[in-house]
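Subject: Predicted fold for Pimeloyl-ACP methyl ester carboxylesterase, 528 residues

User T.R. writes:
Posting the sequence so we have a shared reference for the thread.
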Amino acid sequence: MTRFSDRIRRRPVLAGFLAALVLTAGCTLPAFAPRAESEGEAAAPGTAPTWRACPEVPDELVGRGATGMRYECARIAVPRNWGTGAATGATAGPGAGETFEIALIRIRSAKQRDRIGSLVVNPGGPGASGVDTAVYLSFGPGFGGLPTEVTDRFDIVGFDPRGVGRSSPVKCISDAELDASFGYDPDPESQASFDGFVDLNRRIGQQCGAKYGDQLPLYGTEQATRDMDAVRAAVGDDKLTYLGYSYGTLLGATYAQLYPQRVRALVLDGAVDPRQRLLAGSESQAKGFERAFDNFARWCTANAGRCPIAPDARAAVTTAIDKARVSPVRGRDGREATSGWVFYAVISSLYTEQGWQELARSIDALQGGDPTGVFKLADAYAEREDDGHYSNMFDANMAVNCTDETEKPTLEQIRSVQSQWRQKYPLFGPALAVGMLGCVEWPGGRDPYPTGKATGAPPILVLGTTGDPATPYEQTPALAAMLGVGRVLTWEGEGHTAYPQTPCVTRAVDAYLVSLTVPREGLRCPAR
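User M.O. replies:
I've generated the structure tokens; pasting them so everyone works from the same file.
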């Protein structure tokens, strides 16, 4: 894999929402939405889509739709290759004259009044589904979704970016290879183990190159951003109102640079610094996850009654990973909790503060011979279903990240920083170092996105969380400064992303989305 996915895995918004629905609907929820194609013809580029009722989407995701919400779906066709500044698609080069289909969902409240337009949402990844996210957010504040102040004024529009989920999905990594990748030693220290991980990534790259060839560079961020403008046009808005999380902040920032005059309001939550290349970005995440783990460990010490691996959580987790290298615990189905699976359980749990207690219990149970909790956490991160099948989350993640990346470190550089980062960031540094192998062995050309000012755009709201592991807080002011029109809002909380977590954050974002009221400079919201 490349850098840890910076998507929204289980924000408290969704965690609380799912728990509440289990109780109210009395149903067993699937872990993830089905990736079936929506019915109907895709609207040709530049033409209005045909919307159809699609209550089956929330039904399949969570068992029912939100009370008072209407769900409609459509598909639009976009040029595979927009070309540089092209309006109707490139006339030469890969994908010329061909199209991708983009799946959309539009959710409208029966209580809507004084409609402003559409709020387009993206959860990040890259590779996560915006259709799924829009459904989750439609359930309102009682379930951790969007506030009624927003749903009463906007349609909620989600889209799966090109190559993701329901939108002409890219799929070229087998379930067995994903199992091998996630289960691999996160710090392959011996040369033989390191070479084995190189070989695995090389096989994956060769397979994806053989299947998609010169089409691979068409999955990059700039192409997907131009699709976003087609989404804006398809929903009939003159200007874009947008809520982007994690990698979705990169899409939003790129949009502001390409189409500054078409921006109404952009909320960029969990900011990515577009100027960080592969090495710097990987080290930034290593630092962010180490900091988040230290926060977890301190919580564990202070809450020993809720943390069965207290008083030394770091030692307990490190020991669990070390033991899994030589003697992995086997589950009832025969699956082994290798060091990689234990490691990704840790990664998964750090995306929300609510995941901390789950991690502690899972590591404690693993010590007692039960890997169930570890697999539950790791599988949620990997989008691995109980039957061993994966979504295309990480196929798309690789295709986008590696297309965007201009930097390609050598194997010798990776081996060197693996050793250096092991000293600086002992739990997460080596994994972030060897994770760069995915793009080193990825075929196809590169298509980097722009990294400049959004000259002519209105103020853009950039949110950062001080305890964010996946998109460390330092990237928030960096993105705001790069855009030149960014206004920083800080949440002094834990986990990945901030809105709508607390009243302070929610009030500020709602006022910006609805009334275009920009928060005062330097506003910081307390953790709770």
